[in-house]
Write a structure and sequence with these properties.
The strands form 7 sheets. Strands 19, 20, 22, 23, 25 and 26 form a 6-stranded antiparallel sheet that branches. Strands 5, 8, 9, 10 and 14 form a 5-stranded antiparallel sheet that branches. A hairpin with a 4-residue loop joins strand 9 and strand 10. The chain is 10% helix and 30% strand. It contains 6 helices and 27 strands. The protein has 450 residues and is mostly beta strands.
């Protein structure tokens, strides 16, 4: 027996590196020589105490949805209609205060397999319930669209990196390409975790399955998160992949960096409104030379917007009114900010190319959009103006002085209106020199209750 006993210490030494492998929760930036497992060194990222100590139920940030959404009657807005949608990075949705993209959550050994996990809040009946929670969505052909605390409003979340819907079953994605710190550890940062697509749908009204009453205006104050992002790695507490969230939430909330929800960021209203039915899909400008555009010449083309309005609509930019705006693309917004084309209220004076500044794209030119001959400010997002500086933000009464009523059926009026797009030299502040190239810009006509 003695030879066996003498071999035992060697056996334990060989197993130790695997048995002790772990990921460490990072909570500070230490010195250039720190040896703390829970600290990074300067220049390796951003760190600190976790806000709310992790993904607490009311710690969610904005999903990028409009601040006000509207549900109308089923004859105007049929069950299954998409009310609003957005895509948001974890730096925005994961916490109410937001995260820096370089925010470090964990340090893990280079050989460790580290995963991002995601699921709905499957133990709450208004946040992705694990027993038939999406039965209402399934009944109208909307897979993985779950009840919210609002009557007849469903929420569907999509994990953008995998394209998979959030359900009550935990799924995972192995993280790769992580930054390595000066001590050879992988760093799990906010920038490494997936964006989330959020979609809100109208659904049939259930008389017994809702939390918040049906009111004309109602902010989402139900604190339960709709979904979560968790981290799986050696030494961490984490849920069991492939199993339901119900009773399976190890590591919550102190080891989970992302709470996903509507709490405190979206208000639901129920008023008569208008909706866009058709927009000219493409506007093609004739070519113009640099000499012409520098001399003040431009190219102008029309485009048409068709929309319909319910009887009793409040045509206004005031609270509860229905307003129209034209929202620029994310690329155009980023370029406009860099060029100084965003006013003090957040509205934009020009529509510039989606890929402004890239090779082959013209510089120093933009597109003015005109309504009834007057230049419009353009929307950076679809948030309500709350009755303040609406035109400066980019909101206008939905029915304008040049809107032509073309018919009315069942109390719903049809309208058409011709807008104009004018390609010209940028003329605000210190503008760059005009260079030749293409102008490829995208915008979206939106109508929303304020």
């Amino acid at each position: 027996m003695k030879p066996i006993l003498r071999n035992l210490p060697l056996l334990f030494i060989l197993l130790a590196p695997t048995a002790w492998a772990t990921c460490y929760k990072v909570t500070s930036v230490g010195s250039a020589t720190t040896t703390s497992n829970t600290a990074i060194r300067p220049g390796e990222g951003v760190a600190g105490a976790w806000p709310g100590d992790g993904a607490c139920d009311s710690c969610n940030g904005s999903l990028g949805l409009p601040s006000v959404i509207n549900v109308s009657d089923a004859s105007f807005q049929p069950d299954g209609s998409l009310i609003a949608s957005s895509v948001s990075p974890l730096t925005q949705y994961g916490n109410s205060a937001g995260y820096d993209a370089e925010r470090v959550f964990f340090r893990c050994a280079q050989e460790d397999a580290v995963y991002e996990m995601f699921s709905t809040n499957g133990d709450d009946q208004f946040s992705g319930w694990y027993q038939g929670g999406d039965s209402v969505g399934n009944s109208i052909g909307l897979q993985a669209a779950y009840r919210t605390a609002w009557p007849n409003v469903l929420l569907r979340l999509t994990h953008v990196e995998t394209g998979q819907y959030f359900t009550d079953i935990w799924r995972e994605r192995r993280l790769s390409g992580l930054d390595i710190d000066s001590r050879g550890f992988q760093l799990v940062k906010a920038k490494n975790l997936s964006a989330v697509r959020a979609e809100l749908f109208r659904a049939p009204l259930e008389s017994t399955r809702y939390y918040l009453a049906t009111l004309p205006a109602q902010k989402y104050l139900y604190t339960q998160a709709a979904g979560y992002i968790a981290i799986k790695g050696p030494g961490l507490a984490y849920p069991n992949v492939g199993q339901t969230h119900y009773g399976n939430w190890a590591g919550w909330y102190y080891n989970w960096p992302g709470a996903i929800g509507l709490y405190n960021f979206v208000t639901l209203k129920r008023y008569p409104t208008c909706a866009v039915t058709n927009v000219t899909p493409h506007v093609v400008f004739p070519s113009i030379s640099i000499g012409e555009i520098n001399a003040g010449a431009n190219r102008e083309m029309p485009f048409q917007v068709d929309f319909k309005c319910q009887s009793g609509v409040f045509n206004s930019t005031a609270p509860n009114g229905t307003a129209l705006g034209i929202k620029v693309s994310a690329g155009a917004l980023a370029a406009s900010s860099a060029l100084g084309l965003v006013n003090a209220n957040g509205g934009l004076s020009y529509l510039v190319s989606d890929r402004y500044g890239e090779p082959g794209m013209a510089k120093g030119v933009g597109i003015r959009l005109l309504r009834d001959g007057s230049a419009m400010n353009l929307l950076a997002n679809e948030n309500s103006a709350n009755g303040s500086n609406a035109t400066a933000i980019g909101w206008y009464p939905a029915i304008g002085s040049a809107s032509n009523k073309t018919g009315e059926v069942g109390g719903i009026s049809q309208y058409t209106e011709t807008f104009r797009a004018r390609l010209e030299k940028l003329s605000l502040g210190s503008m760059p020199t005009v260079t030749p190239g293409r102008v490829e810009a995208t915008a979206q006509v939106v109508i929303r209750v304020q």
